[in-house]
């Protein structure tokens, strides 16, 4: 009997398949905008193929969700989505609401946490785990709405909030996948709160400045030129809405951000300091489809005074395959 017979055993070789996770954060301005337009935007988020393939949204995180408005949002999303733990402590800036695709994920609700971020505002932390094709995936998401407006005191409040989040992240396992989203109200990349975040987390668009026409594609507020029904005007000239990620989401294994998938939904980069649906310049968000782009732009204009951020992630999972090597006697 040759040596090879002594090594008869079953090998489990890893082969890789991929699944996708789409995460959307959106300040919905307490649902005071047009509800039909908001419903259109929510549906369009899953159909967005401006940066590659379209994927069903796995997680929506909404900011400025007053008590009761989470029910309106859930109705728009439909039964496919489950509502994550919702808490409202009377936040002046509105509470956070998270909804997850119930065929992809489930919440470990015992891990939910409220985190005080200053100025009567609270962030929320949710712990999600994958099911079905996403089995084995695990990550934490944070949503917040930090103090608004310019001025040193407001900057200090935002820095307080950012550091509260970072302190909580430090309590998680070192290899945890973490995504931090929200309306941060950062005016520049020199803000202490922004600097604190990027010391620990990654800004997928880089650490450079975002002011001015050259960075118009990054802006998320406001898609409106006129103030109406409480929605803030001012046109697209601020980057207030962000997704920061942990370095584990860029380490080449497990759950990973898809390169160049980060975008401000509907922002074609050609509407700096004008309304997103400006009558003098057609929207070109979707390549070679101005009609679709303009329809989305109008819905974004009417729905809220922010536009959503969309980021796609891929999951490379290992599946065990049973193989038996050839043997010789």
Q: Kindly name the structural category.
A: alpha+beta
Query: Approximately how much helix is present in the residues?
Result: 10-25%
Note poorly predicted spans.
1-17, 319-329
Give helix and strand order, one letter per element, not per position: HEHEHEEEEEEHEHEEEHE
* Quantity of strands, as a count: 13
Mean pLDDT: 91
Radius of gyration: 22 Å
CATH fold-type name: Deoxyribonuclease I, Chain A
CATH superfamily: Endonuclease/exonuclease/phosphatase
Would you give an account of this structure?
The strands form two sheets. Strands 1, 2, 3, 4, 11, 12 and 13 form a seven-stranded mixed beta sheet that branches. This protein is globular. Strand 8, helix 4 and strand 9 form a beta-alpha-beta unit. Helix 2 (35-47) packs across helix 6 (290-303) and helix 4 packs parallel to helix 5 (192-200). It has a single domain (24-316), classed as 4-Layer Sandwich (Deoxyribonuclease I, Chain A), CATH 3.60.10.10. By secondary structure, it is of the alpha+beta class. It contains six helices and 13 strands.
